[in-house]
Design a protein that fits this description.
Blueprint (H helix, E strand, L loop, with lengths): L12 E9 L7 E9 L5 H11 L20 E4 L2 E4 L8 E6 L6 E3 L2 E2 L9
Parallel strand pairs: 1-5
Antiparallel strand pairs: 1-2, 3-4, 3-5, 6-7
Bound molecules: FE2/S2 (inorganic) cluster (FES).
The site of FE2/S2 (inorganic) cluster has 13 residues, from loops.
Length: about 120
């Protein structure tokens, strides 16, 4: 179970998430958060726990949650485009950014619809 607030018990690992925040690429920046986690937990597990416990305005998008079906959790994790529900948390430091080359909406959410799909 992810804990974003307390000193971790021995079986938990710790990592620092550097998460991009903001509504424009020019004016936003990274904020850092310490979290603890168990082996096997995903980046999306960490982000949702962080939002639940201490950063309620963190903007993330997901739908199927760990089923790898919706693709809505796609973001840049340690410099690679990945699904946050599949990518695993690791110790040390992780950098999480919105998708590059897509219009930024807020934090880790980008506009992923093609122009043909917009009404
Ligand atoms: S939440 Fe659906 S693919 Fe990640």
């Amino acid at each position: 179970m992810i804990d974003t607030k307390n000193t971790p018990p021995d079986h938990l690992k710790a990592t620092r998430l550097k998460i991009w925040r903001g509504t424009s690429r020019e004016e936003g920046g990274h904020q850092e958060f310490e979290i603890t986690f168990e082996d096997g937990e995903s980046v999306l597990d960490g982000l949702t726990a962080l939002r639940r416990d201490s950063v309620p305005d963190l903007a993330i998008r997901f739908s199927c949650f760990n089923a790898n079906v919706c693709k809505e959790c796609t973001m840049l994790i340690d410099g690679e485009v990945q699904y946050a529900c599949i990518a695993k948390l690791h110790t040390g430091e992780m950098q999480i950014d919105p998708l590059p080359n897509r219009p930024l909406l807020r934090d880790l959410i980008t506009d992923t619809l093609s122009n043909k799909e917009k009404i």
